[in-house]
C-alpha cells in the first residue's frame, strides 16, 4: 500500500450478518469483495445442505474451518514450492560455480 493511498470505509454482509464495517484501500476492495462472495457462497450452500438441523453459529464455524483448512493446505504447498526452488537455485549455483 502506498503511503498516500487513502482508506475507505466499506460494509460487508457475511452469513446473514451485517453490516460489518471495514476500512480498506481502493486497491484492496475488489479482493475483499471476492472473499465476501466466496464466504457467502459457501454459507448459502451449507445452509441448504445442513439447514434446519444446524445452528447458524455451527454453520459459520464450519465455513470458517473450511477456509482455514484451505489456507493451511495452500501454505504447506507454498512451503514445498519454496523448498524445491531453493534446492534448484543451489544446484544452479553449484553448476555455475564449477565452470
How would you portray this structure in words?
By secondary structure, this protein is α+β, with helices and mostly antiparallel strands. The protein has one domain. The chain contains 2 helices and 2 strands, in the order ββαα. It has a two-stranded antiparallel sheet. The longest helix is centred in the last third of the chain and has 43 residues, at 56-98. It starts with 7 loop residues before the first strand and ends with a helix. The mean pLDDT is 89.
Key features?
two-stranded antiparallel ribbon; 99 residues; flat; 2 helices; single chain; alpha+beta
Q: Strand order, biggest sheet?
A: 1-2
Q: How many structural domains does the protein architecture include?
A: 1
Order of helices and strands: EEHH
What's the pLDDT, averaged over the residues? Answer: 89
How does the helix and strand content classify structurally? alpha+beta
Helix content: 55-70%
Strand content: 15-25%
Based on CA atoms alone, the radius of gyration comes out at: 21 Å
What distance separates the N and C termini? Answer: 43 Å
Work out the helix count.
2
Using the alpha-carbon principal axes, give the shape: flat
Q: Give a short account of the largest sheet.
A: 2 strands, antiparallel
Give unreliable regions as ranges: none
- Oligomer state equals single chain
Query: How many strand segments?
Result: 2
Amino acid at each position: 500500500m502506498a503511503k498516500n493511498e487513502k482508506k475507505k470505509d466499506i460494509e460487508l454482509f457475511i452469513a446473514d450478518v451485517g453490516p460489518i464495517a471495514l476500512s480498506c484501500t481502493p486497491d484492496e476492495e475488489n479482493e475483499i469483495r471476492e472473499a465476501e462472495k466466496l464466504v457467502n457462497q459457501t454459507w448459502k450452500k451449507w445452509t441448504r445442505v445442513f439447514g434446519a438441523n444446524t445452528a447458524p453459529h455451527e454453520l459459520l464455524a464450519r465455513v470458517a474451518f473450511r477456509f482455514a483448512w484451505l489456507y493451511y493446505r495452500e501454505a504447506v504447498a507454498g512451503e514445498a514450492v519454496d523448498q524445491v526452488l531453493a534446492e534448484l537455485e543451489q544446484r544452479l549455483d553449484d553448476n555455475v560455480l564449477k565452470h
